[in-house]
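Recall from the previous chapter that SMILES is a line notation for molecules. Here it describes magnesium ion.
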Amino acid sequence: MRRVQQTSASQLSVLIQHAKKTFPSEAIKEQFLEVIDLYPDIIARDILIEVAEELDRLVALRSLKEMIYEWFATIVIQNRRRAFGLKESEHSYHMIFCGNPGTGKTTVARLMGRLFHALGVLSRGHLVEVERADLVGEYIGHTAQRTRELIRRAEGGILFIDEAYALTRGGEKDFGREAIDTLVKSMEDLRHRFILILAGYETEMNMFLRTNPGLPSRFPIILTFPDYQLEELLDIAERMSEVQEYRLDRSARIKLSEILRQEIQTGTRPFSNARFVRNVVERAIRRHAVRTVKSPALSRETLMTLKAEDFSAES
Ligand SMILES: Nc1ncnc2c1ncn2[C@@H]1O[C@H](COP(=O)(O)OP(=O)(O)OP(=O)(O)O)[C@@H](O)[C@H]1O
Ligand SMILES: [Mg+2]
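With both inputs in hand, we obtain:
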């Protein structure tokens, strides 16, 4: 699957496409640390290290990690060029995220905000996450007003619009159009003051872009978040458990992989990927508690180990 598409020949996307071929390995964190060490004048080192570690902990999403590293390198070099009085190239970071639920869109958007903030691109780096209902008002002019207010809240950070395709749901007369027009205007007027990310299912987002001819050229970057493979979902479950100081024994891994296979094949669509895994793991932690709470003299091992009987699909 093509994960990074170009909709316009912006300088940034060309640079990224080129750099993609030269990215050396999986270990994004080491790449970051090497650069951070080379530039002692980078101010927000600790935040950058944290971001690198969090990126590293994300399972799969290789193309995306590569792209983030390339932005990182580009911004570090731009900052260095500025110090030499060289011209800075114009970059637009407005983006479209395509993907099913639970594929990591919000997580990545939040990380990007922190990264851009640490590198001085965004003054705050926070994420304002909204959907159609937050933008669309009840009378003419109301939508523009609400949209402008949300853009104001997102200044210095990222305005993330989930299921953005819903803005064109109602056709020509719908107020969703007013929201789009206001967004497009602000993207240009406040170009360096906030980043706009429109997110949604791939098919719907493609349709959304086709029905709004002015939009594709305004979003040089389209990132696709693919559904996770079974093995990746299992890794995600292990990492989620690890963070909370639990681990899955062999029986639990087998049970969980059965649950996941079942859900992917026959469950309600669309499959909610890592979000489904999170729910199953949280449920397992509760069931583990019920299973162990009356045992005398609990060992550290027992307190940490999730077993097959703790796992079930329904939450
Ligand atoms: N690659 C990954 N590795 C580890 N954890 C992940 C990964 N992707 C997602 N997660 C976890 O799965 C959960 C859901 O992710 P997130 O909310 O970012 O997905 P989303 O695409 O925004 O979903 P939705 O469309 O439902 O809003 C979060 O707890 C997140 O930390
Ligand atoms: Mg989300």
